[in-house]
Amino acid sequence: MLTFTIRRLILSVPTLLFISLVIFLLLELAPGDPMAQVPLTVPPEVKEKMREALGLGQPMHIRFWKWLVQFFWIEPQVLIDHMFGTAYSVGDLRVISWQTRSPVMDTVVQRIPQTLWVVGTAYIVGILIALPIGIYSAYRQYSVFDQCGTFITMIGFSIPPFFTGPLLIVIFSVQLGWFPFIYDTTHVVNDWDSFVYQLRQMILPVMVLSLQTTAQISRYMRASMLDNLNQDYVRTARAKGLSESVVVMVHVLRNSMIPVVTVIALGMPAIFGGAIITEQIFSVNGIGAQLITALFANDLPTVQTLTFIFAMLIVFFNLIADILYGLLDPRIRYD
Amino acid sequence: MTDLSNSTPLAPPRSQWLSVWDQLKKHKGALMGGGFLIFITLAVLLGPFVWSLDPQKIDYRSRDFRPIYHLLFDSDAKAAWGHPLGTDQLGRDGLANILAGGRTSMAVGWSAMLLTLFIGTLVGVIAGYFKRLDGPLMRLTDLFLSLPILPLLLVAVTLFRQPLRANFGPEGGMFILIVAIIGITSWMPTARIVRGDVLALKEREFILAARSIGTQPGAMIWRHLLPNVISPIMVSATLGLAAAIITESALSFLGVGFPSDFPTWGKMLADAVQRMEEFPERVMLPGIAISMTVLSVNYLGDGLRDALDPRIRGR
């Protein structure tokens, strides 16, 4: 299992390199001088420094290398300095935002917990709802529960988050007044009341995000359970006299989870895409909202860094799914 | 060989597509989905000829009309048959805007879907047929699958907007850009499915027979492989159409889509969000239009998947 994990870890390095190259080339091939949009109020010496930070005027591969060094070597050093009070990174040029003129990573570190908190809760809630629905509708195929489930998941599939968001706001915030429609990120949880408030403000964004996840995953869970329920080993397990709950929840479930885990992992890009929209609707100031602001302000270093952070998050969750895959299915480990 | 002397068969052979249609007819959701899809396509294509109000015409005197059904429960509502779906804050007609916006959304959806299918099928067939290219192409597919699609879309649309606008006009440039970018970033599932099917087909006897009479690879793919992978391609076509419509609307919603005077469903929704407490119908109508279209496409895809699967079709 350890070698399997290590092998997967090593495999994700070329993936990350490829993604960083794609992002870099995308920004590189975009026409126009990246400095043309910098406001005139920026003093010339700062402009010179920004040019230096971008490595403008040097060949493309050198600039790519410099960006990699900044991101993978200097930024971790800053992190270590911050944690242990050392001074490895003093004097190194960091990735500087054109909007705030401060290092991009400082803003990202402030904002990433909001995104991860909302997205993570939504995904976990979605999975926790989806799995029982999928299991039960496969177990009672074509029952009323199954038909309703299919219809609801189809609707969940089809209604985009930028429609469910406003819809839920109109219903639950405007008409009923149950939940706030702006996510207050400065809110600090220190006692029971503030915890309840935090829960209430999280419900709407989490609902919007998890609706799609639930629909997708419960569909796959149902299909996968149906494939397995008719297998010979299920009949054997029943013939052995195992109780129905053990047959379904242990034997069938574990085997059906294998394809579903892949779907859960492959859903990550979609959920982060949905997070950008949800953050926009509910004014969560996470990294999705930061990406939109940076894009409109033509703040290329921030855009580059954020897109890459999204990619890293996706690769990281894919890695976790791969490892889970290995845990669930021993055959994979010895491939 | 005397049996073959009877050159005209007694009954015409039953076409495969007839039995597909028979199975599809049994799937209520697919029929309704397909019907709605045809209806909405015809409506956005022919509707502007019937309802000939200009969607861009600004008429301050008749702004903020409510939809006509408001008269049912509120006889004082500001509504008129001249604007059955109401008008927006600039007096632009709601129905004309829905039709015009639907035209854009459907055009983007269909073109992006066709491009996705083309790239996906090409990569899938090549990877499945030529063993040497299989590894690299599938590795590439995996890499594309881990790209953060929406952030990349946003970045690409923002950065490449200006030059394309200069070359093809504001609407044309945006159309090409959005279609191309959706196509480039969503071909991977099609490629994977097609590759798997081609790999399985390659082991069949008729391929061996075709090869033994000296069929060239080009003809082999065109005449023998492609007709046999048409069913997974059609299923992923429906999924691609739904995804493309949603992606286009999402881009418009985030404000990086088509220019601001050019109606699309996503943009109408985004514009209406600020005043949705007073005028909820302006959010609901385009939202329902998007959701119903996508829902019908998804149901059609569900039915097609069943109908095109010969193992299910017999039952």
Description of the structure:
Chain A has 335 residues and is an all-alpha fold. In chain A, 77% of the residues lie in helices and 0% in strands. Chain A contains 13 helices and no strands. Chain A has helices at residues 2-29, 44-54, 60-84, 104-139, 144-158, 161-175, 192-229, 232-239, 244-266, 268-282, 287-296, 300-328, 330-333. In chain B, helix 11 (230-253) packs parallel to helix 12 (265-272). The relative contact order of chain B is 0.14.
Instruction: Give the overall pLDDT of chain A as a whole number.
Output: 79
String of helices and strands of chain B: HHHHHHHHHHHHHH
Question: What characteristic shape of chain B results from the CA principal axes?
Answer: globular
Beta-strand residue percentage of chain A: under 5%
Kindly report how far apart the N and C termini of chain A lie: 12 Å
Judged by helices, strands and strand pairing, the structural class of chain A is: mainly alpha
What percentage of the residues of chain B does DSSP assign to strands (E)? under 5%
Termini Cα gap of chain B = 36 Å
Which sheet architecture does the biggest sheet of chain B show?
none
Percent helix range of chain B: over 70%
Cα gyration radius of chain B (Å): 24 Å
What is the SS-derived class of chain B? mainly alpha
Order of helices and strands of chain A: HHHHHHHHHHHHH
Shape of chain A: globular
Q: Indicate the low-confidence ranges of chain A by residue numbers.
A: none
So what's the oligomer here?
Answer: heterodimer
Question: What is this structure, in a nutshell?
Answer:
With 335 residues, chain A is an all-alpha fold.
Which properties best describe this structure?
heterodimer, A: 335 residues, mainly alpha, 77% helix, 0% strand, B: 315 residues
Secondary structure: elements and pairs:
The complex is a heterodimer of chains A (335) and B (315).
Chain A: H1 2-29, H2 44-54, H3 60-84, H4 104-139, H5 144-158, H6 161-175, H7 192-229, H8 232-239, H9 244-266, H10 268-282, H11 287-296, H12 300-328, H13 330-333
Chain B: H1 16-26, H2 28-50, H3 70-73, H4 94-129, H5 131-145, H6 149-168, H7 170-185, H8 188-202, H9 205-212, H10 217-225, H11 230-253, H12 265-272, H13 280-308, H14 310-313
Helix pairs in contact in B: 1-13, 2-4, 2-13, 4-5, 4-7, 4-8, 4-11, 6-7, 8-11, 11-12, 11-13, 12-13
